[in-house]
Amino acid sequence: MIFLLDNLKEIRWRQRFENYEKSYRLLERYADQQIESEIEKAGMIQFFEMAFELAWKVMKDYLESEAYEIKSPREAIKQSFQIGLIDNGHVWIEGLTVRNLTVHTYDEQLADKMIDDIKTIFFPELKKFYERLLKEL
Known about the structure:
CATH superfamily: Nucleotidyltransferases  domain 2
Largest sheet: none
CATH architecture: Up-down Bundle
Distance between the termini: 24 Å
């Protein structure tokens, strides 16, 4: 019975990774392009929000498949950093804070800063995470 549960947890993180991969690829497609219009900015921010949300959920599912008990996004990020699944835990915690802020407010100056931060800070971390998990498949 325990083997079956472990196998299901393994399958779960792999399925979640497939969803993460789709959102990551959307973000990747636009990460190096000039984003100028309000609709492009909103789209880029939305792609980031989706990718980030799925990334921490992949972390959670992966960690649970490794017998960790995870209760929150912050806990998933901290534990992922501790086991070397991600490199820059502080950037991920900042990403969590920023993602929560963008979900609830829209301000053009904030959007411009977010686009820059997504491209230069957060996307590189999402990319490293993606590449790290590809090796696990």
